[in-house]
Design brief:
The chain is mainly α and 313 residues long. It has one domain. The protein is built from 13 helices and no strands. The radius of gyration is 19 Å and the shape is globular.
């Protein structure tokens, strides 16, 4: 359907522009000798907020009928998984963070490869090397910012317990991930997938030049979340109806609006949780917000795996 292809193509362009803006922030950071950590945290919080709604419609995709026992059972299990993940990360900061890093990189890479597959299927274009693309697209924006020279300052602003999270593997991960990204770029060029090479090049650039907090948050909010929302418009009834009428923008905003209420809920829940466990909102809000987002990713990743694998096939 042309409306679906138009939306996915536009979101690919917009997500690239979002990363380019993040790279510009990185260049300014380098030219000015550093952007204050307070400004970095603010930019990160804004970008993270943009990304939160994309994962808040899992229930609508999995159990379309709201008023049902299945929906009650689904939400009970879903929220129980989130609650357990929050408890685990707060109880074992370092191990929880390490597992989140691995889980997120896999989820992001597979999701981005699935996004491109959705475009290819509508263009009747030949398949591309999904595994090298997914490895580079998922691990580059997650790992490189966490093991570069600026990572200690960023992690200190989140939770000092996370500093040195990779131990002796830090330098190996840094250069190893750069190598994997470069190999993936060359691979995409060899198979004449310039579009995929551009994607990975942008992710590598923002990971190398932009402060870690800003790099990851911009990737999450302006790349992963946007592309995932575009794919949600291929599943949600309201969006499908808009696509059928060739109302491309309406199809996108129907997917966005379905998740917007969750943004207010997540922020309110995060503040309530922070106050309940005695955290300082002025200095530890970013940490607890990230914990909540990571915890939400656990069931979200499991549920979107079905859609990802279907798209990749």
């Amino acid at each position: 359907m042309q409306s679906q292809l138009n939306l996915l193509s536009r979101l690919r362009l917009i997500s690239r522009l979002g990363i380019l803006f993040g790279i510009l922030v990185g260049v300014i950071h380098l030219l000015l000798g550093g952007i204050s950590i307070e400004l970095q945290v603010l930019l990160a919080l804004l970008a993270l907020a943009v990304g939160i709604p994309h994962g808040a419609v899992d229930h609508l995709v999995t159990v379309p009928k709201m008023a049902s026992l299945r929906m009650v059972a689904f939400l009970t299990v879903y929220l129980a998984a989130v609650g357990f993940a929050i408890w685990f990360i707060l109880s074992a900061n370092l191990l929880g963070f390490q597992l989140v890093v691995l889980m997120s990189a896999i989820h992001f890479g597979i999701g981005d490869a699935a996004f491109i597959s959705e475009i290819d299927s509508r263009k009747q274009r030949s398949s591309f090397p999904k595994i090298p693309y997914a490895l580079a697209a998922g691990f580059t924006p997650v790992l490189i910012p966490l093991v570069n020279q600026q990572s200690a300052e960023a992690l200190a602003a989140v939770n000092p317990a996370l500093i040195g999270w990779a131990g002796a593997l830090e330098s190996y991960l840094y250069f190893g991930m750069i190598s994997i990204a470069v190999v993936a770029i060359l691979w995409m060029l060899l198979v004449k997938r310039v579009d995929a090479a551009i994607d990975i090049s942008l992710l590598l650039a923002i990971s190398l030049v932009t402060p870690p907090l800003v790099a990851f948050a911009f990737y999450f909010g302006f790349w992963h979340a946007l592309r995932h929302t575009g794919r949600l418009s291929l599943e949600l009834p309201a969006s499908l109806k808009a696509h059928a009428s060739n109302l491309t923008s309406k199809a996108f905003w129907s997917s966005v609006n379905a998740g917007v209420p969750a943004l207010a809920f997540v922020i309110a829940f995060t503040i309530g949780l922070a106050l309940t466990i005695g955290l300082n909102l002025s200095t530890e809000f970013l940490w607890i917000l990230l914990v909540v987002i990571w915890a939400l990713t656990v069931p979200h990743m499991a549920l979107t795996a079905r859609l990802d694998l279907r798209a990749l096939k």
